[in-house]
């Protein structure tokens, strides 16, 4: 049985434009909160394949999306490379000993050795392949090397990125050494997710907007493209989605290239511009402003405008970033049903 989401990634004919939402398995769902409470905390949930599989499937049953995205976290990678990860209430993810020098990088596990430690992720994928309906796709994912490196250098989320950007301008060789090491782990991690059963993989560059457009290729995009090349060399038929958030200027200057299938468009990038620049080469995913979900009327307006722009060709509906925790579930259901209504062929 074909999967509508995979077909859309490969620009095949579909009965309507498929839809899923970033962060669709999460805090806006009471059912998710119940499972998370049972797990004890967020990291325990990531490490428990049965519970991680359960929350991965919830949005398919409750909201009606066309693809499940693996429930995990981008920071399991540096954690298994040897950095101690904690999620502190009110503060988010914290690494107590961030990377400061070459010795810190050398002390980390690399390549397949680090990727091999992420067994709980692969077990979750295997469970999901048994449990998911045949027509629903499973998306595996990773953080982009730059996004992972920012956490590893800053030790936590940041609004200024001053430590990693100080390194970018004053010691670029050191930053490239971190990015290179992370890239090698990510390559193996993606392949192992695919071998466990992921139908599609997405590379999230959540902090792409922290880099000035003229430096973006050097410090992020080229590493993402290298990962995509590595995946395509082994699994040419597995669709790859790239999602760099906040790179409108980079798109506009013609910076996007590479061997991948789908480009995730953030809500700050006009869909018409993305279509003009990228639509012939890549399927586009996105890009409703997530806060529109607070209003069913505004959701419908936006879905109709996106449909008018894309005409149901080379497109996957999604938000332009993640769904927020206080969005009413009925509004998420409305978004999904409206996407299907306006694009039904």
UniProtKB/TrEMBL annotation:
Catalytic activity, as annotated: uroporphyrinogen III + 4 H(+) = coproporphyrinogen III + 4 CO2
GO CC terms, sorted: cytosol
Name of the protein this chain belongs to: Uroporphyrinogen decarboxylase
Binding-site residues for substrate, renumbered to this chain: 23-27, 73, 151, 206, 321
Matches recorded under Pfam families: URO-D
CDD domains for the chain: URO-D
Leading EC class: lyase
Keyword Cell membrane applies: no
Occurrences of domain Uroporphyrinogen decarboxylase (URO-D) (ranges): 18-27, 139-155
Keyword Signal: no
MF terms (GO), sorted A to Z: uroporphyrinogen decarboxylase activity
GO terms for biological process, alphabetical: protoporphyrinogen IX biosynthetic process from glutamate
Role, per record: Catalyzes the decarboxylation of four acetate groups of uroporphyrinogen-III to yield coproporphyrinogen-III.
Complex and partners: Homodimer.
Record family assignment: Belongs to the uroporphyrinogen decarboxylase family.
